[in-house]
Write a structure and sequence with these properties.
Elements: H1 2-18, E1 21-29, E2 34-41, H2 49-64, E3 70-73
Parallel strand pairs: 2-3
Antiparallel strand pairs: 1-2
């Protein structure tokens, strides 16, 4: 599951980098389906970061990786 998550994150990374940000994978908990990520660069502290995480990154991960239920920023 971790490799699938990494590949899915690569697909959204270019969009984040276009705005001066990026994302780091912190942890994948396969039992709970929780993926922990860290938004960095311009994304760290951005007012739209919660929207990006929920409707961008989270949506892509849930669509592409079976078992992902939650995406949490740490």
């Amino acid at each position: 599951m971790q490799e699938e998550v990494k590949q899915a994150l690569e697909s959204v990374r270019s969009h984040l980098r276009a705005d001066g940000g990026d994302i780091e994978l912190v942890e994948v908990d396969e039992v709970s389906g929780t993926v922990k990520v860290r938004l960095v660069g311009a994304c760290d502290g951005c007012p739209g970061a919660r929207f990006t995480l929920a409707n961008g990154v989270g949506r892509v991960l849930r669509e592409r990786v079976p078992g992902v239920k939650h995406v949490v920023a740490v």
